[in-house]
Structure formats: structure tokens, C-alpha cells
């Protein structure tokens, strides 16, 4: 799915290669991302600059960064897809929590190990009533989300002496402008450095001829 000209960027760790997003076009449901690809010619070792666009077909989620990026990749199986293609549910805790700060630290650590920087932790640390709630009540709702994520959170609950219940399971849905539709399989995540988009498909286009800069000139 990644054009041959760009595949070397996906597998190249050289500092001289990378990309930079220059423009985002939101005028249709399929957003269009323009970016510059910086690389090195295999022929004469000159520096090259290519201008590309990628059309994100049936966009579900977008996180754009204009920072310089060092890689491009497409994933058909990634935690970012869980909220769109997996079962959703609610996670309830049961029992007494003797060390609420430790529990939240364990949950946060588990979350970061799964998502890295790509997904915010949705259990709030700084709401004043959160810690007292866990200490004062022997059961309650902890959070909601993809079941695969909730299953990871349950390990943290058990580690901290709590039991759990997962209830209210339902398939992921999206709003098509008129109705909520059960999400189909086949979504993908495109990574452009720190940028990612969750969509049905991608259409890459090279916008201009490659610019060669002879580093020895």
C-alpha cells in the first residue's frame, strides 16, 4: 500500500531521511494530507525532496502533527483500532482499594505501554473525588472503552486486590451523518511521523518531480 518510492523511508533509520506535513485539506469527508519526503538518492547520493499527498478515505480519527517525522507505516492491527472494530464495554471494580494512587499509576503505566503517545489516558487523576470514591465505596464504575483495553485494566485491579465486572458489551459503531452504523472490519492506521489517521483506505499521489540537491556542489 505504501508506494515503492516511499517504502525505503519506512525501513530506513538514517537521520537524512524523513517527512514533514505541509498542509491538511478538510473540505471533504476524505481529508487530504500534503507532505514533503526528504531522502537520499541511491544513484548519486544527492539529497532529494519529493512532494506527496495522501487521501484518507472514510476518515474515522485524525491526529495531526506538523513536527518533522522520521517514518511512515500502515497497520491493519493496532490498539488505535480497538475503539472502532472491537467490542465496547464498561469496567466496574469490586472491593476496597487501600492505595488508590498506586492503582492509578499501574493503570496509567499499562495504558502507555499499549498506546505510547497516540492515545490519551481517559481515567482522570486530578478529579478530587476520584481517590475518595475508590476508598469510600466497595464497588463502582471505573471507566468504559474497548474490551481489549478493559481486559488489560483488569490485571491492574487484580494486582491491587480488587475484583471486577465487565458489563454492557456492544459492537463499535460510527455516525454516518444519519445513523449509527456497526463498524466493519478493514480499517487501517496510517502513521506519518507523529501524525496518524484511522481510515478505510489511502490513496498516495506524487505531486511534483523529485528535486535533487547535490551535496558536493
Descriptive notes:
- The structure is a single chain.
- With 217 residues, the protein is α+β, with helices and mostly antiparallel strands.
- It folds into 2 domains: 100 residues, no CATH class; 94 residues, no CATH class.
- The protein contains 5 helices and 14 strands.
- The strands form 4 sheets. Strands 1, 2, 3, 13 and 14 form a 5-stranded antiparallel sheet that branches. It has a 4-stranded antiparallel sheet with strand order 4-12-11-5. A 3-stranded antiparallel sheet has the order 7-6-8.
- β1 and β2 form a beta hairpin.
- α3 packs antiparallel against α5.
- The longest helix has 16 residues.
- The protein is elongated.
- The protein starts with a helix and ends with a strand.
- The model has no long low-confidence stretch (mean pLDDT 84).
Beta-strand content: 35-45%
Total beta strand runs: 14
Classification by helices and strands: alpha+beta
* Helix share, percent: 10-25%
Main β-sheet, in a few words? 5 strands, antiparallel
Question: Could you say which overall geometry the principal axes of the C-alpha atoms support?
Answer: elongated
Q: Roughly how many Å apart are the termini?
A: 36 Å
Query: Residue-averaged pLDDT, rounded?
Result: 84
**In the residues, how many domains can be counted?**
2
From the alpha carbons, calculate the radius of gyration and give it in angstroms: 22 Å
Order of helices and strands: HEEEEEHEHHEHEEEEEEE
Total of DSSP H or I helical runs spanning 4+ residues: 5
- Uncertain regions spanning at least 5 consecutive residues: none
